[in-house]
Design brief:
By secondary structure, the protein is an alpha+beta fold. The protein has helices at about 5-20, 30-45, 75-90, 95, 100-115, 130-135, 140-150, 220-230, 290-305, 330, 340-360; strands spanning about 25, 50-60, 65-70, 115-120, 135, 155-165, 175-180, 185-190, 210, 215, 220, 230, 260-265, 270-275, 280-285, 315, 320-325.
């Protein structure tokens, strides 16, 4: 297949995904491998297409390609507007654009690390949604969000995949970025900014920690990165021959508002917002006429505290109830990695039963 034919197929698929088309049919035969390569190429260059996580069915015989989306078009439009608020008022893209290239890169690195918790079981964690809306993600979510934000501030980047030398699992895979700063390509692993992942450093490698973040894989050469992991399609990686020697200190600007991003609007009595000051907290904001429901919930949580099976409450402020952020089971089932065994499901039922007993013992029915 010629390069031009590949480009035409890619454009056709990209248009379908962008417009939420459920199916497309190729007029001429296209192999499953070509379809896979085209879709991978699209998703590794268009991180804003968060509603699609490369879930599809392709019938090579008929040429019918069927897409499965994470969200409806209506929900995706709502989420896009919330992402725009995050970019404008929390990330503060207009301010970041005034920084030097290297400072912009560092700002994205620090912002993502401070706004995101590494969580293997976060929902839709292969997309920017997991970082910008859930604030819980894995390496692919970090890498795609970095690519998205860097693109907004004028920095070219690419997503790479490989495997840590220390990873003994059969299917283990890691994602990170290469970025172009002042005409020079550098590797940056945004996920490995998280100190909880320092066990992924190579043996005897001293953690480089600043402002509670790891900096071992910020602006390094391919030679350095290969000490730690393999690189898929290494021949296609731009030459990265240098590592940063001096990294300027960039401080995050405070968010313009404490509550910027609506995490969920599906409740009948309240909206759930992210707390811009703390990635581990959400706020339930009552809908019109439901303020009493929030106050009652706060009182019940006070009665149940401390309780092993009840969400932690931080009280009411500005008419909002602040709670620890947890992953609902419904979203857990949408995790890319969550594959519960029979014993896992049994444990969930046991915890539910124990929680109901705690309610009963404290007089809450």
């Amino acid at each position: 297949m010629t390069s031009k034919q590949m480009q035409n197929i890619t454009r056709l698929i990209e248009s379908a995904i962008s417009n939420f088309n459920q199916t497309i049919t190729f007029e001429k035969p296209v192999s499953a491998e070509i379809v896979r390569k085209c879709i991978s190429g699209i998703m590794n260059t268009r991180p804003e297409l968060f509603w699609f996580s490369q879930q599809y069915i392709y019938d090579e015989k008929s040429g019918l390609l069927t897409f499965r989306y994470n969200f409806t078009e209506k929900n995706a439009c709502t989420i896009k507007s919330e992402i725009e608020k995050v970019v404008a008022d929390d990330f503060q893209v207009d301010y970041v654009k005034t920084l030097s290239e290297l400072e912009r890169l560092e700002y994205v690195y620090v912002w993502i690390a401070n706004r995101t918790t590494y969580n293997e079981f976060s929902s839709f964690n292969q997309s920017i949604y997991s970082v910008l809306i859930n604030r819980n993600s894995v390496c692919a979510g970090y890498a795609r969000t970095a690519q998205f934000l860097l693109g907004l501030v004028g920095i070219e980047s690419k997503i790479l995949f490989g495997k840590f030398h220390s990873d003994m699992s059969e299917y283990g895979r890691h994602a990170w970025n290469v970025v172009k700063i002042h005409g020079v390509w550098l590797h940056v692993d945004f996920c490995l900014a998280d100190k909880s992942l320092k066990h992924l450093l190579i043996r005897d490698e001293k953690p480089v920690i600043r402002d509670s973040l790891l900096w071992n894989y910020f602006g390094v050469s391919t030679k350095t990165i290969l000490d730690n992991r393999s690189i898929e399609l290494e021949d296609s990686v731009p030459p990265c021959e240098h590592s940063l020697v001096h990294i300027p200190e960039v401080k995050l600007r405070p968010s313009k508002k404490r509550l910027i991003c609506c995490r969920s609007a599906s409740g009948t009595s309240s909206l759930v917002y992210l707390d811009s000051n703390n990635k581990s907290i959400v706020a339930k904001v009552p809908k019109e006429g439901h303020a009493e429901v929030i106050r009652n919930e706060a009182e019940i949580l006070k009665i149940l505290s401390p309780s092993v099976h009840v969400v932690k409450s931080y009280g009411i402020a500005d008419d909002a109830l602040f709670l620890e952020q947890l992953t609902p089971w419904g979203e857990l089932l949408n995790s890319h990695y969550y594959d519960p065994s029979e014993s896992d499901l049994t444990d969930i039922l046991r915890q539910l039963t124990d929680g109901l007993r705690e309610f009963r013992d404290k007089g809450v029915t």
